[in-house]
Amino acid sequence: MIVNRRIGGEQPDEYDELEQHLTQKLNVPLDWPEGGGLTVSHVAKIAAAAACDTAYSQAANGHLIDLFAALPLPGTTEGKDFWERIRDTGGSAAWNIHPANMGGPFFDRIHDGNEGGIASRILSFLEELTPAQRTAVAEAIGSVLDNGTIGVSGRYGGELWLRDAEMSAWRVALAGRREFETAQDRERFFEAWRRA
Length: 196
Description:
The protein is an all-alpha fold and about 200 residues long. Helix content is about 65%, strand content about 0%.
């Protein structure tokens, strides 16, 4: 089911798809129960917001998993050589993403909903790299991506991988801050921009 919402709000008197679904399936009006604290409309809005935030974080984390899946697997001969090269070129920053430090069930926990774990590690890794280390890491990553299936090669491919990982991790981290945002925080944001 697709939830159709406009950025910045919704049109008054327009039901979104989730509200329509709930009213049809439950056979109740949106303001039911009258005088109640929580109506069908409220439930629809809560469900839509939760689904959007969860889906967004899961999609971004899924993409981060895909980026790591494009790299050699730990425990293989190619993987052992690759991850040693990342450790050597990335220095202490590389420990943020090195399998010896984040292996085990780490990716399983991400897959099961630990939204911020890998994002914070990637951001720490990239923040701690010097420009020379970033170039060397990009070359190491690019060398394993250059197998003819991706269409980019060498350092450029590695730099694209790093930029993609950085932006995906940033999206997860930024979306995660909304967990601590209240309705009053959101209204204060809109009010400040209305008055600007």
